[in-house]
Every structure is written in C-alpha cells, then in structure tokens.
Give the backbone structure.
Amino acid sequence: MRNANGLLARIVRDKQLWRFGCRRRSFCSLKVTSDDLDNQVLFEGSGCSRTAILNRPPALNALTTHMGVRLHKLYKNWEEDPNIGFVMMKGSGRAFCAGGDIVSIYHLRKRGSPDAIREFFWTLYNFIYFLGTYLKPHVAILNGVTMGGGAGVSIPGTFRVATDRTIFATPETVIGFHPDAGASFNLSHLPGRLGEYLGLTGLKISGAEMLACGLATHYISSTEVPVLEEQLKKLLTDDPSVVEATLEKCAEAAHPEKTGVIRRIELLEKCFCHDTVEEIIDSLEVEAGRTKDIWCATTLRRLKETSPLSLKVALRSVREGRFQTLDQCLIREYRMSLQGTVGNFSGNFCEGVRARLIDKDDAPKWDPPTLEKVTEDMVDNYFSPLTPSEPDLDLPIKLRESI
C-alpha cells in the first residue's frame, strides 16, 4: 500500500463535503460489550477489506447503544490497521437499517432512565462523526430499508450503493420527533427543496431516486449484490479510485418512476420554498386544487397528520443545516434529541411512538394540537440545552481535523 498519511490526506481532501470545523475535544468513552451484544454487529474480513454487518434482522437492524459502541470500536481498530485498505457496511435480512431503536428509547423514557437515552444519542452521533471523518474508503450497501439513523451511519461515508430493494425515508416527524442523526446536514444539501419535503413529510423514496438526488453514489440490481461484494473483496487496495472503478463496473442505470417526487423538483421549489409550514401547506392546497394531482393530496394528508411542533422544528433544522457543518448539525441535533425524548417536549415523542408502534391506533394526540398554537418560543426552546449546565455533544474535532 502507498504511504498511509498521503492516502488519508487525499481522501479527506476529496471529501470536502464531509469535512467539519467545530470545537470539541475528546472521544466518548467506549464500554466493552458482551459477546451476545457484539453479535448485533458482526464482521467479515477478506484480503485488505473489512465488512461490518448490522445484525438485528427481526428489528430491521435498528440501532442500539451497544451497536454504536461496537461499530465505533471496530472502525477505530480498522482505521489504525495499515493492512486494511477499505471498509464496507451492510445489513442482515431485508433491511440495511431502519434507524434508531425508538421503541427501546420509548420504554427507557417510561421507566425514567434519561441517562441511558443520553448515552444512546451520544454514542450514535459520535460514531456518525467518526464515519464522516473516516480516513479510509467506505462502501455502504443499502440493499433494503434505510431510514433515519440508517442514513446517518451510511451517507457520511465515501460510497453508498442503492438497489431496487432500497427504501429511504426520514420519518421522525410522524412520531413527534425531528430528523436527526445528521439528517439536517444530509437533507439540506439535496437539490432544491427536496430536503424540506423529505424532512417534513417523512415520505419514502426509492433507490433510483436516491441515486438521482445524490443520496446514493451508485445503483445496482439487488440480485447483483453478491457479485458486487465478491468483486470488492478481491481488491487489494486502499485507493478510493480503484474501489470506485469496481463500483462503476457493476453499476446499472437507474430510472426513477415518472410519478415520483424526483420528477417534481420544480413543484417542490414552488411549494416548499416558503418561510413557514403554514405557507407551505397553503401553497400545496392551491396546487392540489389547480392540478388535481394525487401527489399534492398525499403530501397534504401526511403533513396534516404529523406533529405540528415537529413540522416547525424540522423546517428550521433543515434550513439551519444549510449553513452548518456536519459536526455543528450533530451537536445541535443532540440538544434537540434530548429535548424531544427526556425534556419538556418528550410528550410528543412518547405519544407518537405509542400511536404508531405500540398501540398502533394511528391516532396520536399532539401537543400543541395545531400549527397555530405552536409558538416561536416553543421552537426556540426545542433547540436549547436541557439545562444551562447540560454538556454539549463532545466530538473529537481537534483530533480528527489535525490528521
């Protein structure tokens, strides 16, 4: 392999979108997990590559604190090993990763365990930052459900391979939460107002649409995933251009459906460019009446059944993300996530999870119940620390940026 320092400097230079510049100091402490918990993340080794396998298929590989710890430990060891050239990540079963294990967070909240919830977000967001500054090529194979935190542990990497089985969404507002795990950064850099649309509605897009908007870097048929994996495992390289050439060789053309949101970029710009959620809804209603487009009706229905506070918080979060680096977004989202799960606004999260995933009555009672009753002070407070003494997310920015 070539000189590691030269390679790492070039990878970082080539990934300026994922570079950051904020102000924290040290890694979070990583606890050693048991063998059983380690099985939630398996790994394979072949030649000079390593593959992390998210392994909770019954839960669609939803992320736990232990998985965040395990991933961070593995990735740190692999980054430091000069014999490892590049790293891959995939999921077991029919999902890549459906996001964070929000049902577990719900039960922790009900049991009164705020420290465990803090640990979850602290651990996951630190790993996402570590992946975003990773010093070796990274390939995420998104062959299945990829939502919420699943996007967080894949999009900051070098390459993301979508398939015809990929389903992408950031559905947090539907459960009374906000797009997190770096979503305010990722969504805000999409074309036009697509980020606002995805962040507010939580509606799904396909693997072909992921490629079209830049969330994915490559697209292949799901039946060809084993072939791609075998080709990658044969590589003896630490050169991202060599990895990319293999991905390009296996890649296929992707054709988004004509009825999909990617075909409506101009309409998104027209409706989602407004300053407030109320204006966005008004604009959609005008277009629905004028065009009779079923897409407008579907979008309106989703917005009207979603937490009003979450809608206003999500809109502000995505728009702030356009002017922040990923580390800044993660630090801000950490404050927001604590407010939304253990702070003054945790009631909406508990009610959303109850209605969508526990009781499944799909009849959440939001607080406030309407957009008109969501005040600016509420939104401002959602972005603030739980208490004046609450520590911010501690990211190793000086250490990672000095490499």
